[in-house]
Amino acid sequence: MDVPSLGHNIGSPTSPCEGGMIKNLSLEAIQLCERDGSKSQDSGIAEMEELPVPQNIKINNITCDSFKICWDMDPKSRDRITHYFIDLNKKENKNSNKFKHKDVPTKLVAKAVPLPMTVRGHWFLSPRTEYTVAVQTASKQSDGDYAVSEWSQTMEFCTADYSTVHLTQLLEKAEVIAGRMLTFSVFYRNQHKEYFDQAREAQGNRMLPSVKDNSGSHGSPISGKLEGIVFSCNTEFNTGKPAQDSPYGQYRFQAAAEALFNPDTNLYFGDFYCMYTAYHYVILVLAPRGSAGDHFCKERLPALDVADNRFLTCRREDDGRLAFRHAQDVILEVIYTEPVDLVLGTLAEISGHQLMSLSTVNAKKDPSCKTCNISVGR
Prior knowledge:
It comes from Synaphobranchus kaupii. By secondary structure, this protein is mostly beta strands. It has two domains: 27-158, Immunoglobulins (Immunoglobulin-like), CATH 2.60.40; 164-358, no CATH class. The chain has helices at residues 164-177, 193-202, 257-260, 292-298; strands spanning 55-60, 66-72, 83-90, 106-111, 117-120, 130-140, 146-148, 155-158, 181-184, 186-191, 206-207, 210-211, 227-231, 251-256, 265-274, 280-288, 303-304, 312-316, 322-327, 331-336, 340-341, 345-349. It has a six-stranded mixed β-sheet. A hairpin with a 5-residue loop joins strand 6 and strand 7. The radius of gyration is 26 Å and the shape is elongated.
């Protein structure tokens, strides 16, 4: 069962606040505050026979914005318990963004429903995030005060990635702004000269897949997990060719589109995001059918029809040749999951500028953008 009224962060009536204690609390007027780890000496809490401390807490069915929680309960005390107080906090992270506002502890109040109980809410749960949780049992008295147990043992858990349901929601939002389709003929990858020297001298003349960085949606199931090589395919509207500027390096490898994308390749939607700018990015994955990357994506990402989607298509024309098109109004980041031999294309220095401000390496998604966010943790 879902926790019934978690629209706000609610302080536990047993939690001592900074500079004083909460007095004469009711469920309708609970404030947010820190707890000291055990029972409060709050005079607003009624004295009565001790309530049982939750034991053997179990957390399961974890998603990106919900979890189920249950614990052992003394049957004799069950009738006296009217509420549960849940203290939920993000686990301390020494590498957290120091410019982000401090995360406020979340105190949840729920009626004593049968266990297990589902705790759900994207306003206080984010995907791929470690949390601590502790529980009290409580009994609401006739005067509005509470009798409470001591806090349970503190448990830790980590929320999950976006599911295919959430990714499909992102996909549908991306389709709205993708724009018309433009023809293209090559995939290209920009890097520094040293990158390609390494590929030639130490990697058998091949570019090798590497683990995707943490750019994009925080809940993306491919960040830090999927191995691949990132290519571009966007072209300039007026020339039909790749732009000469790049944030990634002055050397460009480019290969005919059909070398990486053909009827034997599966295509998956990976993410949709922006970086506090007007530009929006769509991450797609190209995986040769039956490859390790293909198996990874099949379990986690929405598959796209290679010949009919709003982002990247490969269609066989009447004359038998393959024709390729990309969406005009989004920037595509195409991850190819297998090694790529440099003999499949050409390598040359480009004449444009290196626009570092456009780099998406480990770029954080704008959580306030209504175009590319969905109603789960960002």
